[in-house]
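#struct-pred

JT: dropping the chains for the assembly here, can someone run the whole complex?
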Amino acid sequence: MNHLSEEQIVLHYYGDAEEATEVERHLAACAECRAEFARVQSMLRQIEPLEVPEPAAGFEEKTWLNLHDRLPEKGSLLRRLFRPSPPKWAFAGVMALLLAAAFLAGRFWPRPGQQVAQQPPSQVNPQRVVLVAVGDHLERSQMLLVEIMNADTKGPINFSSEQAEARELLDSNHLYRVSSQQAGDPQVARLLDQLGRVLAEIANGPAEVSPEDLEQVRHAIQSEGLLFKVRVVGSEVNSRVRRPEPSGSGVNQRL
Amino acid sequence: MEVTDAAVVAQVLAGDRDAFRVLVDRHSRSIFRVVYRMTGNQQDTEELVQETFLRAYKSLERFELRANFSTWLYRIAVNRTLDFLTARKTHMQTKDTYQIVDNPDAEDSAQIQLPAQGPGPDRLVLSAEMKQKIAGALGLLTPAERVAFTMRHMEGRSIEEISQTLNLKASAAKNSVFRAVQKLRQQLEPYAGPGTSSRGARWSGSAMK
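RK: done, full complex below.
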């Protein structure tokens, strides 16, 4: 006599097995399968729902406050038409600052052939590897932000590839933010916090956006000089990566 | 009489952004519970709750007013959490030497040591150690398995609900639940003491059809 498969036994426990009557009949007749079912039952009964901590008092309020400024207006055409748009000079200013930052970064960037400290793989400092990852993350984020700032604003804009990129960046962003917070690097943590809000806005928007929606995203990017900060902090992180590590101080190095 | 969720949604869609707060007040705690069971981490959960409401707000035009708002919101929360867990898993696989603080509540999840002989099952049921082992074993599931298992086992959702929420065929949803249980057995049965090991090898090719 064939026995029940593990899948049949597990699904029967939840009442999801096909041919449930046959499974039950088999269990009634077969001591071995009955014992197996009892083992599955005993193990699954031990797995109780995870105890969920009660969110702190005012959780709803906090959620709403964090959310409020990220909610675009809906419906009312009048409100949308009269929403103040960011001044053109703000964009020009950001671009000028970016050019200046690029110029400075270029001047201080190490030339090919310049000696860069290297460590054998066995001595690689994990914090330093995180630093490299944060540098890459900021570079990718910067590319995305620049792409959005330069997107064509005529007609409906397909935003799906930018959204996919933003979603990916958003999840890494959270992890890097926690890491930098714990490593005692508030500057990077603050920037990643700000970047996370904008990435979330891009990631959660519709796949096809109107020029007005795009303008709103651009406004969020410009409002706190985000692109400039990403560029500057990214350069700083990269220069810290290139800086030779003093012997014995690596592990506690700040991000 | 309390205003219905659908009426609040209509109000928001008409341009009253602040009305959305009513929905946040009504549903954020239940969404917190759902997400926490899947992530096991309070900070991640709080952020995912916000993400869920943000995504819901931005897709509000697609919500059918006759549908149940909490079910719709639940689906958004589960899928957003699944995306998050998937990204986290990929991230940890590619950068597992980075010492990134990821999920402090399940920090030993990948390092379960199986003892040759464990204490008896009855003692383990209530022990904190077993809870830790369970948390660790859950941490070894793939994101899809973890979400499907949480929905079926911990929330008592039906296979139909799981397949609708995760946009899967019913057979795929069942398979995710089964694979989750199979992995949990592999991790947890060694703790159940001698004489309780499963018949493993005999399952291959001898199922009752």
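JT: nice. The first strand of chain A starts at residue 157 and ends at 158. The CA atoms of residues 158 and 208 of chain A lie 5 Å apart.
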